Amino acid sequence: MSGHVIAPPAVVAAPIHGSDETFPVRRVYCIGRNYAAHAIEMGHDPDREPPFFFQKNPDNLDFTGEFPYPEKTSDVHHEIELVVALGKGGRNIPLDRAMDCVWGYGVGLDMTRRDLQGEAKKMGRPWEVGKAFERSAPMGRLKPASQIADPTKGKVILKVNGEVKQEGDLNQLIWKIPEMISYLSDYFELAPGDVIMTGTPSGVGPVVKGDVMEAHVEGVDDVTVKVV
């Protein structure tokens, strides 16, 4: 049997609360403008229009507690999000079966080079240059779904240097978790290892080197990330 011509890339795996095992990540789906107040602050109508998704790469995830300020930008924004990790997948998953796919939950940050994203939007180009750069998704440990009392509600708070910048509640999601899973499965074949970043509340804003971000999703986790 022939081997690879180069060394295979390392498997990206999220740590798990209370376990030495890890969760290998296959794909990272991100939903845009999934809180009404955030849609408004970004200049869009908050009415419930069909959802849209973009992707980050698995190796954009980072679990070190540090976020290196990226190059080619002067306007990097924080976006706190509930992360949903899938243990099952499929195509055309019905709503009443969607939650069966969920393995667990975590807290992540969708860090965004807002200036580059804005330029891409104006030119009708994809967002990857603003969204899918190295270490652009700081994340904490995952918790199994069985340890989460109610993933449909709970405070979502992001502090920068101790000051609350973002605040919302999971019950404010425009598209709920089962709806996101079902909708995605109509367009992609979902699989174990896929994660979904479920959107961010209003209050997104810039960070600079030295800032400390504290991300909290009630009942899920607390994550602290320093901008370096």
Topology:
Layout: E1 13-15, E2 22-24, E3 28-31, H1 36-41, E4 53-56, E5 61-62, E6 66-67, E7 76-78, E8 80-86, H2 95-98, E9 102-109, E10 112-113, H3 114-122, H4 128-131, E11 137-138, E12 143-144, E13 155-160, E14 163-169, H5 177-187, E15 195-197, E16 205-206, E17 212-217, E18 221-227
Parallel strand pairs: 3-15, 5-11, 6-18
Antiparallel strand pairs: 1-2, 3-4, 7-10, 7-16, 8-9, 8-15, 9-12, 13-14, 13-17, 17-18
Describe this structure in words.
- The protein is of the alpha+beta class.
- The chain is built from five helices and 18 strands.
- A six-stranded mixed sheet has the order 4-3-15-8-9-12, with helices on one face.
- The mean pLDDT is 94.
List keywords for this structure.
alpha+beta, 15% helix, globular, Fumarylacetoacetate hydrolase, domain 2, 5 helices, pyruvate, 18 strands, acetylpyruvate hydrolase activity, 6-stranded mixed β-sheet, 5-stranded mixed β-sheet, 228 residues
CATH class: Alpha Beta
Percent in helix? 10-25%
Q: Main β-sheet, in a few words?
A: 6 strands, mixed
**Which outline best applies?**
globular
Explain briefly what this protein structure is.
With 228 residues, the chain is of the alpha+beta class. Helices cover 15% and strands 32% of the residues.
